[in-house]
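Hey team,

Sharing the Dihydroxyacetone kinase, ATP-dependent run so nobody has to redo it. Sequence (539 residues) first:
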Amino acid sequence: MKQFINAKENMVTEAIDGAIASSGGALTRLDGYPHLRVVVRADWDKTKVALVSGGGSGHEPAHAGFVGAGMLTAAVCGDVFASPSVAAVLAGILAVTGPAGCLLIVKNYTGDRLNFGLAAERARAFGYKVSMVIVDDDVALPDLPQARGLAGTLFVHKIVGAMAENGATLAACTSAAQRVVNGCRSIGMSLDTCTVPGSVKEDRIPEDMAELGLGIHGEAGVQQVSCLGAQDAVAKVVDKLSVTLPNTPHVVLVNNFGGTSVLEMSILTHDLLSSPIGEQVQLIVGPASMMTALDMHGFSISMMELAEGDAALLAQPVSCAGWPGCHRVQAPALLPLPDGLSPIRSPASAHPPTKAFLTGCCEILIASENDLNALDAKSGDGDTGSTLAGAARALIEAMDTLPLADHTQLYRAIGLELSQTMGGSSGVLLAIFFAAAGDASSSGLPMREALQAGLDRMRQIGGANPGDRTMVDALVPALDALSDGLRHAASAARAGADYTATLSTAKAGRSAYVNAEQLIGHVDPGAEAVARLFEHLAS
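Structure output:
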């Protein structure tokens, strides 16, 4: 089982106990395991309107993660993707409701509506003041009479939670909650399904496709669509949202379904704010995991119309673990580079043969991106091809700004360009290589000797030598053989690169941390890149 759980029947109670234990005393629970799983504010005194929500587990941090001052009073937790029982909901209501009354915030799923609804009726029969709102913010199917409740529910938690904390009445809280629901729209997209503990993972989404308009329980989306990257994904989501979106100021909530990396979520946020509806977004919540679907590799976008006073309620501090805060969207005030760091560039000069030569070298690296990444995945982190290809693309883009007619200055300019556009240690090493080659060329050394001087400086600073399983294994023999012509240099580079596949240990670079079984039989990706470059030149 590829999940960090113990017994399936105990995982919800163990997760709740973990959340309570790490809350610093802010949370507690009702005594009722395993059937009654109700997380409660430890400081609650029943003097204000209580807010109770909940539903199936698997959506963490929803719902226990939003229990705290300024948001929920209690969360009622069911099994994974299953509504809690009427008894559990009723226990939660009775435990936290005082004279001010209680508001139930329920997502529009049949089980939740029925169980929370019946519990509310029984609580009223006991004499408690209880009202309920149903959140139906999903716009995947505009004509659906029973739209699902998604992450827009959190806007209700936050705005009404702040009102209740400030002493608002049950009637005012209920009215505000319904207003928020009416002004909220959400839609989700995912590249993969989620892994439900104890069940076989469903494999229904083909490669290069995504599901648009899906809920938070692993159910199928409204349609499968092609997915050509983050910008394309956001465009498809925005198309659905914008159909009924009024041209008024909004707050957006960018929610991670649980399996999307932080890097991806930041890119999606950038593309959303750059989209046609980005100008309407004044406030943003996230990106963060707030209402997840276990480990689903997807995201949802929730938009809510801003009314007077909402910004202050959204910004009001809370004491719960799951709320990431609400921030105003604004362009950053860029700071100038410190003195001495702004690059001094040599004047550009045209030289068509040199431009063609460099462009050809760059195109070889770009074409080799996937192959080099695959090699690097055997012994590193799988990004050598992307790093080299990214630098090659940047160099092509900067080609007309380079001193192509002055090779001495060109070496230095390439070194400067690589230091700014090429990541990792390889970018630094190659920047040193070309800068030192430029220095050698300025002293009158011909090309081969200048490049040899650059290699010596790179080896001195980087510490890599032949036999250490790096690009040096191909570069040293290639430059040594260059005086005999490009064909000899290409043969020497290829032999040096192939030699790295016989080495069971690496003494430099990331491969130094990899065991022999993963190294033997795989050419070092840096050496392979050097060999391909010289083979291109020889042809």
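The mean pLDDT is 91.

Ping me if you want the raw files.
A.
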